[in-house]
UniProtKB/TrEMBL annotation:
<keyword id="KW-0249">Electron transport</keyword>
<keyword id="KW-0813">Transport</keyword>
<dbReference type="InterPro" id="IPR002323">
    <property type="entry name" value="Cyt_CIE"/>
</dbReference>
<keyword id="KW-0349">Heme</keyword>
<dbReference type="GO" id="GO:0020037">
    <property type="term" value="F:heme binding"/>
</dbReference>
<feature type="domain" description="Cytochrome c">
    <location>
        <begin position="67"/>
        <end position="149"/>
    </location>
</feature>
<dbReference type="Pfam" id="PF13442">
    <property type="entry name" value="Cytochrome_CBB3"/>
</dbReference>
<keyword id="KW-0408">Iron</keyword>
<dbReference type="InterPro" id="IPR009056">
    <property type="entry name" value="Cyt_c-like_dom"/>
</dbReference>
<dbReference type="GO" id="GO:0009055">
    <property type="term" value="F:electron transfer activity"/>
</dbReference>
<dbReference type="GO" id="GO:0005506">
    <property type="term" value="F:iron ion binding"/>
</dbReference>
<keyword id="KW-0479">Metal-binding</keyword>
<dbReference type="InterPro" id="IPR036909">
    <property type="entry name" value="Cyt_c-like_dom_sf"/>
</dbReference>
<protein>
    <submittedName>
        <fullName>Cytochrome c5 family protein</fullName>
    </submittedName>
</protein>
Length: 150
């Protein structure tokens, strides 16, 4: 029997499949519509945008400059309250007028020195352990405690 192209069903099916694959491939590579294009661009755009100093259009507020020294209250809350809010280790408690009276009588300079250098032999370590606090910030925290304890 002569195997003719059109007589062989398997070959016909192969051709049909090949044709179908080509049509599918053409469909897949078709140009997206403008709408699809924006949607795609939207999905693949970078999350952040680089903006150079001086650019006016930077989206969002300019990076805030260093906000300056922390307030006495902030420093107290983060670095001093653990002891001075509870009396731990014999720390004079904020608001305890009697505990602070004699200390306040020594004057601000003495208290600032204690805040910055600590009180040797007691739980009052230098800067209350806040080693990234500036002297200025420690003094503000001392002021805050003194103001709240007389
Ligand atoms: C680990 C506990 C602890 C922490 C934290 C701490 N203190 Fe104290 N502080 C003490 C103790 C205890 C005393 C009492 C020392 C003494 O016997 O005179 C004291 C005393 C003081 C005094 C009085 C010192 C004097 O000369 O009478 C000041 C002022 C003071 N602390 C400031 C601060 C400041 C400001 C901070 C936070 C930046 C702070 N302390 C954090 C434990 C602490």
């Amino acid at each position: 029997m002569r195997a003719g192209l059109t007589e062989d069903p398997i070959v016909i099916i192969r051709y049909a499949l090949g044709l179908a694959a080509m049509i599918l491939a053409l469909g897949a590579t078709a140009e997206p519509t403008a709408e699809q294009r924006t949607a795609i661009e939207d999905r693949i755009k970078p999350i952040g945008e680089v903006c150079l100093q001086g650019d006016s259009e930077c989206g969002g507020a300019a990076v805030a400059a260093s906000s300056g020294p922390r307030s006495g209250e902030d420093v107290y809350n983060s670095a001093c309250m653990a002891c001075h809010g509870t009396g731990a280790g014999g720390a004079p408690v904020l608001g305890d007028v009697a505990a602070w009276a004699d200390r306040i009588a020594k004057g601000n300079d003495a208290l600032y020195a204690s805040g910055i250098n600590g009180v040797p032999g007691t739980g009052m370590i230098a800067k209350g352990g806040c080693m990234n606090c500036s002297d200025e910030e420690i003094n503000a925290a001392v002021d805050y405690m003194v103001a709240g304890s007389q």
